Amino acid sequence: MTPTTEFPQLLERALAEAQAGTRDLVERFSLATFPAYELDLPNARLGFADGDKRLYVPIQVLGIHHADANEWQWAWDDAAVPDRLTRSAREALAWGRLNGIAPLLNPRVPANPDDCWRFAAFAARLTGWPALYSVPTLGRTTYLAFGIPA
After folding, report:
1. Cα of 121 vs its chain's centroid, Å
2. What is the pLDDT of residues 137-149, one digit of tens each?
3. What are the φ and ψ backbone dihedral angles of 33, each rounded to 5 degrees?
4. DSSP strand pairing (53-66 vs 140-146)
5. What is this structure's pTM?
6. DSSP type of residue 62
7. Residue 137 and residue 134: Cα distance in Å, rounded?
């Protein structure tokens, strides 16, 4: 087997690990009890809010799903995302270059939401982020890796 032939299996394994890691952090820190969230890119964090109560987790931006085009855009290709928040996405790019994996090399690739979760999970796994979160906005969904609350 080669990385090219193993890539679909690597995506599935990464997704399963990210789902387990997300469940763990959501349960351990009661994240599901917070009715609102705040994406704070300048401070590289996602805040979970309940009135005056806040819990912040560190983040990396992995990519964006554009619903109208049904495509994934890697975070390293979005000028609006600060470079320090794209380290995980850039690691996926580097791994893709090393192993010749086209979906990791192209700034935008055709993708449905399930594909996006897999790409996000792969990038998160490469760099040790345990959990994933998605932030929907008008016509697009931003996929984040997050870690243990600060």
Report:
1. 6
2. 999 999 999 999 9
3. -85, -10
4. antiparallel
5. 0.94
6. E
7. 10
